[in-house]
Amino acid sequence: MSFFQENKIKKITHPQAKFFIQQFLKDREINYQFFKRVSEEKMDFRMVDTPQRKSDTPRESLAHQIYNARFSG
């Protein structure tokens, strides 16, 4: 988290709001670091792909996160 972000967070006084923004920024940084390392040709790779079970691709996972962030709450 950058100095600028930490300074902004210090101004938040509501404990639940402060916790939310800290967690949001932490998760955002983790996602940024992960997706920065996934090459375009790996964005549609499934680690598990059987008739009984399928895993999300990185692209599907990112789309799911964006959808939930926009339409939940």
Concise synopsis of the structure shown:
The protein is an all-alpha fold and 73 residues long. The protein has helices spanning 3-10, 15-37, 58-71. It starts with a helix and ends with a helix.
Mean pLDDT: 86
Taken as a percent bin, the fraction of beta residues is under 5%
Secondary-structure-based class equals mainly alpha
Number of alpha- plus pi-helical segments? 3
Roughly how many Å apart are the termini?
Answer: 25 Å
The figure for the number of domains is 2
Q: What level of helicity do the residues show?
A: 55-70%
Number of strands: 0
The Rg value, from CA coordinates, equals 16 Å
Fold and architecture overview:
The protein is an all-alpha fold. It folds into 2 domains: 37 residues; 28 residues, no CATH class. Helices cover 62% and strands 0% of the residues. It starts with a helix and ends with a helix.
Task: List descriptors.
2 domains; 62% helix; 73 residues; 0% strand
Secondary structure elements and their pairing?
Blueprint: H1 3-10, H2 15-37, H3 58-71
